[in-house]
Design a protein that fits this description.
The chain is an alpha/beta fold and about 500 residues long. The protein has one domain. Helices cover about 55% and strands about 10% of the residues. The protein contains 20 helices and six strands. The longest helix is centred in the C-terminal third of the chain and has 34 residues. The chain is globular and about 60 Å long.
Length: about 500
Amino acid sequence: MNKTKSLKFITNETKKNTLLVNKYSKKMFNFYKPILKKLEKESKIAQYISIKKNSQMRNFLTYIYLQFGIFNKIINTLNIPNTRVVVVDISTKINAIIRDHLNNSKYIDSTIITYIKNNIPNCKIIKYENTINAKKFIFEFIIYDKINIKNLDNIVKNMLVFLQILLKISNNLNNEINICAKNGVSITFFLTPFLKKLNITNANTKEILGATNVNSGFAYVCLTSGSIFIYRKQDFFKVFIHESLHTYGIDKALHGNINKNENYNKFLDLFDFANKDYTDMGINESVTEFWTSLLYLCVNSYQESRNLRNFIYTFERLYKLELVHALYQISKVLKYNDLTYSSFINNSNSKYRETTHIFSYFIVKTLMLLNHEHILNSQLFELNSISKLDNIENNSPINIKLKSDDISINKLFANLYDYANDPLTIQIMNIIELEHEKHYKKYIHKYRNIQTQKQRINSNLRVRKLLTQRNKTGHEFDMENYILTNLKMVVYDYNI
């Protein structure tokens, strides 16, 4: 049997520490499946969004699968429950975090800080501390409701596995030459109940979308000892990956002043921004979100896989559904700003507004995901060593950090310009927008009927009974509300 075939059937015998997917994730996937079928009826689109045979993406997935096997074995030697302690002096610790970190961040809404302050008497802190290869990894979970402690132990194990993989694929293993978090990282999770969402039912009080609607964490980038703060329970694992990528400098090449870059300005000039000041677009977030999406999908796929072939199959299935979600989220954000994708890229009426990096988080990230194979082959990252299966089997190093030379930066923005203008991208968005508009109109019609009935409820007993009956079967309406108002960046979410 040749190497190509043998790799396909690699079975990982390492014990997995299973994560539990929450019910909303499963329901969202079911919602997106018919939309995916509509997209794939168009043969060009079906081919466009597939994972090709003998592709760089397939090679990358093979490489990552092997890393999971290697680092799962290492983490499984640790006794994670023995590293768990309950922190006693809660008030002092949380007040210090609020004073030194949360109050100074533009990425956290004051409502969440107030909740954290007010619930100091009602929470507990569970802390895990592990040292691996002279790096200290500290996880502190501030918990406000009941949890399954075994689930939490498994979450920590999977996070430790991910961090070891990230160190490997971002060239951060060598403490002698690397600056970013070379002593380790401390991550604090405030598992608050706040959801990322927008208000679609009250046009009179429409707010500009910002941190309240989408942000869930922040990190201090490339410190000797990394520090991350996450402040929503929703999407906590995905946000952990995103902030870890920042911590280890994946997007550092875009932290400098790129405002004079011609290709950067040419790309942004395509779009219908109300404010033409490009100094705080946070375009680096798109690179971070691109890798976050792929690596989080790898975590999700590994949970469900028996061998490499199954891992790649699962990845492709989940990738397509997550891609539909990402496209649907773009439609929601643009509709909220009274735009379609076509009007947005025609730069016709300057309506689009944001107070955080939503354009990068949702739109630019999705352009990169749609064109993942081209991105991975554009020499923007050090991935040449996985072009050959021999190198993958020999565990040759790769580096997913964006290269910082001018050629790479120029190529990134030239690529993004082409992706945004691609007729196939426009066709895909047209299909998605039609689906979104159909669901939106149906929901608003139901919402207005229910509001009208509520106004009559005090004088009409029959309507009261009708509403009581509807409440018994109101879950369908609640799910429609969730689909149309959530601003999650990924579908997958885990229970604690």
